[in-house]
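Postdoc handover notes: sequence design on the structure in folder B. Input tokens:
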């Protein structure tokens, strides 16, 4: 999978060198390219923003550097992946569609993602119009109902959620099946040794005996019941998405 990130803060993406994603990159499963949007400016101050037309607070990202960046990145990617290749362009944006596990699952099958990190109040609307006209596939994705200063932290989260689903990245593929959200439920409670533990307050805490029974059928049923109960208590919206 190829991933491009366009940002005015390339250093913000440094954590993608680490841990699971860093290993996936070294293993050749993910090819990540971080680009500085200012490389597509032409003035002395490498200007990427200007005041909003019509007035108002803050600054708006200018359209020219963005358009130049998208076309240059598409050319570079096509030189690598083939002239028919086409990226999904993702704008992290609090006004986007909720990014959920199913989104991560879909995007993990894609050969090529381009993340566009907006800052300030947002990007000139004509950039979105141009991308659609120029044949780019575009998605707006939100992490939740709160506001971040820019898309960079969202790209870190989205990239981690997507890349760990790319085949071969997580060593034990089974662990992806049972985890929270993979079946629309929160994960069941987990225990390890010792089966009988005296906590620091002197209370003896035992592991649910069924987990020591060796009866894998009954253990699976118990875990499913626990997952449903936990979801009902903590996230009833997951059990009743229509809210009725
Ligand atoms: Cl994806 N971007 C920004 N800037 N803020 C957010 C967000 C994304 N998701 C929630 N808040």
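Designed sequence:
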């Amino acid at each position: 999978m190829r991933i491009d990130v366009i940002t005015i803060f390339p250093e913000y993406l440094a954590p993608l060198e680490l841990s699971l994603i860093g290993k996936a990159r070294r293993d050749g499963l993910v090819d990540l390219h971080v680009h500085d949007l200012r490389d597509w400016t032409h003035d002395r101050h490498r200007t990427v923003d200007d005041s909003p037309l019509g007035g108002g607070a803050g600054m708006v990202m200018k359209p020219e550097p963005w358009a130049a960046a998208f076309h240059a990145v598409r050319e570079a990617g096509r030189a690598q992946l083939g002239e028919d290749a086409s990226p999904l362009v993702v704008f992290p944006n609090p006004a986007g569609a909720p990014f959920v596990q199913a989104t991560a699952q879909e995007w993990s099958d894609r050969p090529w993602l381009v993340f566009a990190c907006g800052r300030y109040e947002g990007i000139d609307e004509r950039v979105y119009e141009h991308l659609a006209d120029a044949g780019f596939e575009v998605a707006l994705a939100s992490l939740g109902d709160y506001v971040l200063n820019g898309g960079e932290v969202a790209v870190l989260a989205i990239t981690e959620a997507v890349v760990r689903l790319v085949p071969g990245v997580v060593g034990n593929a089974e662990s992806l099946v049972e985890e929270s959200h993979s079946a629309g439920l929160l994960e069941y409670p987990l225990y390890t040794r010792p089966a009988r533990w005296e906590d620091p307050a002197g209370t003896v805490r035992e592991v649910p005996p069924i987990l020591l029974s060796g009866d894998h059928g009954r253990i699976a049923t118990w875990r499913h019941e626990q997952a449903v109960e936990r979801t009902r208590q903590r996230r009833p919206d997951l059990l009743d998405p229509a809210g009725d």
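Context for whoever picks this up: The radius of gyration is 23 Å. Don't rerun without checking with the PI first.
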